[in-house]
Fold:
Amino acid sequence: AQSVSQHNHHVILSEAASLELGCNYSYGGTVNLFWYVQYPGQHLQLLLKYFSGDPLVKGIKGFEAEFIKSKFSFNLRKPSVQWSDTAEYFCAFGGNTGKLIFGQGTTLQVKP
Amino acid sequence: GAVVSQHPSRVICKSGTSVKIECRSLDFQATTMFWYRQFPKKSLMLMATSNEGSKATYEQGVEKDKFLINHASLTLSTLTVTSAHPEDSSFYICSARGALEQYFGPGTRLTVT
Structure:
């Protein structure tokens, strides 16, 4: 069965620290991968997505993610986090139907 | 970007009653919308795919007679929780499929007493 796993459930960082959130998926075919962010009290917003091409994907707000096919991974990174990055982060996998399968989510808390 | 709205944002109902939640795409047409359920501290669980003009497709384990979905127009999908029980209390989120990505609504907090 298709699934998405996020390894970090709760991450606490100080401002300016570097961030890496792990995401692994299980599916052998063509994949569409996404990272969404949910700021407190707000909608889910798309940070970045990978469909094909360059495996290093750059998104909004300085985030990037790298698709490593051999590791079935799509980790999210940011070199220097800010207090405003405090939010819930979700990795998701999508197929041709448009359905999204979400990981468990990671709560990021950035201390000023 | 595209906007998706949900109404109501929160609702409290008594056990045994039915509740309807609306999901609207405000500035684009969506032939496909999705309904998710999010439990506290948990991820989003896809409940069903709502297709304009046809029956919804439900995920395994989701009761179609309990969660009625209607997608009568290209901008509106509704989810009706019938004969609600306390275990149906949750955060329900819809999304609408745009040209390049899905756009999510703000969610509806349902509390069944």
